[in-house]
Amino acid sequence: MSSLAEMIPPAWRDALAAAASAETFTALDAFLTTEFATATVFPPKEQLFAALARTPPSAIKAVILGQDPYPKKGHANGLAFSVSPGVKPPGSLRNVFKGLTIDVGIPAPTTADLSVWADRGVLLLNTILTVREGEANSHKKKGWEPFTEAVLRHVASLPGPIVFFCFGKPAEAMVAKHVDATRHHVLVTPHPSPLNKFAFVDAVTKDKPFTKANELLVAAGRGPIDWALP
């Protein structure tokens, strides 16, 4: 496997050079080399930085922050909350889609691959970018967090304004740590987990975060995000 630093998409390399040369990133690189050789790890190597590749800094209008990839075979595709084409939406994503239908009024999508959102300026960033099969959070505290925090800091330094969606308390805490809410917009909801389904849907019904995000972007002259999916 190429070194992790070499795999970072060109549009991000200068901004993330310090994070990619840090001791923790070197240790992460060594850890992942062993993991890919001895275990089943998701997403595939070529999709590790899919979120950064599909959404360069200059294109970012919004950020949706996830935790770690889905640990089930064939699901993770390198984008937070997204799954590979042809895979049925997991519970959390089904609830996001229910929220979208209530908020924006679009029909339920027939795909759970969110690549189209990424191409439209939504950075779908997980805090941890890899996971071992069947073991959620198995790559927590292995070195990804300092790197993805560096990504957030760089996004927060952009002129924007950018809308940050915080689904749940961990995302809210991480965004609060790195994002100046007087320069950007931070929208908070409960996590869309099936365990939190009613709290998430109630919050979306009341606050309409997807509509609000577009209103904020239009007011800033940035243009709305088309939330419709195939």
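(ticket continues) Second input and output from the same batch:
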Amino acid sequence: MSLKSTTLGLTAAIALAMPAWADGISIEDPYARAAGASAMAGAAFMTIHNDSETDDRLVAASADVSARVELHTHIADGDVMRMVEVEEGFAIPAGGMHSLERGGDHVMFMGINTPFEQGETISVTLTFEQAGDITIDIPIDNERNDMMMGEGHGSDHDS
């Protein structure tokens, strides 16, 4: 491996580890994963920080990797957790943060065009009421297991 390719790889790794930001909004620790090996759905997770003095709201997300991209959350329906679209988006308070995490709020990709391959990245545009559009490259990490509720809970998806 040449010094040039090593340097480029290191630069890319550092860029992915650094938070993306615009107009007081920063995105920390983003990652995406597919629902399974041959999944037609996947999700992205991250922590969104609002360092501005104005409340903001994530109102939409878009990407070319799937037919539809929506903001989702989980709700309890008896003993089953269901995913539902959150049309009003997610509030990001001034000076605060909002976590998108497994078992909770997340960006949902439905009708994935190509498989989410471990180690690759997808480009996603997040749309905020105040900060506008922020496009980030999100690494795919199908091996990451930090689900808040733990595995084994039933889930049903409303679309």
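Agent notes: Helices lie at 3-17. Residues 3-17 form the longest helix (15 residues). Closing as not reproducible unless the customer responds.
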